[in-house]
Every structure is written in structure tokens, then in C-alpha cells.
Amino acid sequence: xxxxxxxxxxxxxxxxxxxxxxxxxxxxxxxxxxxxxxxxxxxxxxxxxxxxxxxxxxxxxxxxxxxxxxxxxxxxxxxxxxxxxxxxxxxxxxxxxxxxxxxxxxxxxxxxxxxxxxxxxxxxxxxxxxxxxxxxxxxxxxxxxxxxxxxxxxxxxxxxxxxxxxxxxxxxxxxxxxxxxxxxxxxxxxxxxxxxxxxxxxxxxxxxxxxxxxxxxxxxxxxxxxxxxxxxxxxxxxxxxxxxxxxxxxxxxxxxxxxxxxxxxxxxxxxxxxxxxxxxxxxxxxxxxxxxxxxxxxxxxxxxxxxxxxxxxxxxxxxxxxxxxxxxxxxxxxxxx
Length: 337
Prior knowledge:
Blueprint: E1 2-8, E2 11-16, E3 26-36, H1 38-45, E4 58-65, E5 79-82, E6 85-86, H2 92-95, E7 107-108, E8 120-124, E9 128-130, H3 137-144, H4 146-157, E10 164-168, H5 172-183, E11 187-191, H6 195-203, E12 208-210, H7 217-224, E13 230-235, H8 240-248, E14 250-258, H9 270-273, E15 279-282, H10 288-300, E16 309-313, H11 318-325, E17 332-336
Parallel strand pairs: 10-11, 10-13, 11-12, 13-14, 14-15, 16-17
Antiparallel strand pairs: 1-2, 3-4, 3-8, 3-17, 4-5, 5-9, 6-7
Helix pairs in contact: 3-4, 4-5
């Protein structure tokens, strides 16, 4: 089979790899869609990328089942998305579905082991989540990571019904958060420096949009909330300025969650925040049980997850795909097989 690898400094290559064979407890997925994730760009731009097949947003069909995988759970032909981490399965974190927090070491597909930018992918059966027929394979790819990351962060923030939620950054994760939170009954204020992404945010349900390049964020959000500020804030851009604006826009008793991987840092002025009773938290993707709930929610509410994708590519178009995605001006990209 063909698989995509990064060579360093925005270069990549398609190589030939043996078709995988499932061992005990494993399955082989025929990849039907593999999303391009914002975190892929850190590897793509790096001088020292991983040496494995990249990509970690797979969705597809079970192609082969290894020994010990019960036919009552998984059969050849089942439609699935994948929780893209593996752990020891026996520690307290793994047993609660948080393989990425495994106390004995986590395997990240597309970074530590062969990922999804290939025709087939080998994964433990315990990482699979069933994909309903009503959801497309590209939607399944998004739900497994980018959209799932938004779901996990929103769940951390708590009850959003009737809230004023400011979502900083309207890339794929931020747009997913806007879409899900709107369906949950929040009034979403979308923040981004690209007007094209703010237009997409409106499509996904944002009640108001703010461009920091043309208007002061804190002042505008407070004007939109009768001077109170946002009761909930989700920061997905990873920028230092975004983080600062997010905290300054927060209402008294507000809750802020940070998921952005921009690589920056920011200072928290405890003296200023202390009298606001603010709660500040982080969120790292989501657990397997939450991924299952996210998929179910998307199906039941008929969320337009596929609309996140502005670009569809074949794997042999990977050079153009990542060069386009590197600009980070549009929505999400996906390889279809």
C-alpha cells in the first residue's frame, strides 16, 4: 500500500509499505477518509518529523479482524471512526477511556505508529467507535479528532444552554465548537482574524462574529453581552494574544477552556482574576466514551459536519493539500480513498 510521510521543513513523500495484518486484539481498517488536522502542521513544518506514516483522523471500514476480537463487537464491513491513541488498557486512565493519559505510555497514531494517510491502518479493536450510516466517512474522520476535540472541550465547560460562549479561533476545531455549542443552545460569539472563517462561523450557527484586526475584542464582547462578558470561553487558536483576549473577555464566575496548540505561552494575572471567581481549564481531545457520545450527538442532531471540509484531495495530491492547508485560511481538508 501507499503511505504518506513527512520529510521535514514542509516536504513530504509517498512511499510503499506492506499491507498490515491484524494480531491478537487488532483490526485493520480500510481507510475511506483521512482528515488533515491542525496538529499535523506542527509535524509538517518541523525539521525532525516522525518516521512513520502520518495522519490521525481515520474513518473507514473494518477490513480484517485479528484473533480474540469478538464477532459480537466487530465484523468485516463495519463502518467506524477511531480514537487515535493506544494505551496499556489496564491503568486507571485507560480503563476510563483516556488512552492518551495512559500511565504506562501512550502510542499516538501518525506520530509514534503508522497513521491514517494510507489505504489501510492497523489499530487495537478497543479504539474503534461505530459510525452510523447517516454520517459520511469524512464526517467520521472529523469526529475522531478535530470535531471530537471541540466536543471534549465543551463538555469540560459544562452546561452551555442559554450561555454566552466566545470561541476564539475559527479553524476546524473552533468551527466545530461553534456548530456543536449552537446545537446545545449556546449563543456563540466567534472570534477570528480571517473574515472567510467568520463567514463559515455564521454558517455553523454563530450569533455574532468579531475580527480582532478591526475591532477591540474585549470591548466588543462586553458590548454584545450587556457589559457582562462571556460566561464561557473556548480558546482554540493557540495564540498568546488570543489567550489574553479570552481571559479579558470572561465574565464574573466565567469558565475558560484552552485547547489551542500554537506553541505559545501566556501569563495569568491572578490579582486581576481573583475577584472574578474564574475557572480556567485545559482539554486534550476526548475519551473513547465521549467520542461515542459525540458521534451519537452528531447523528441525532444531523449536524453538518461534512461542511467543515472546504478541500477534498486524493493521496497523490498530498503536496498541494498540505501546501494549501498550511495557509490556514479556509476550513478543513480531507483525503478520500
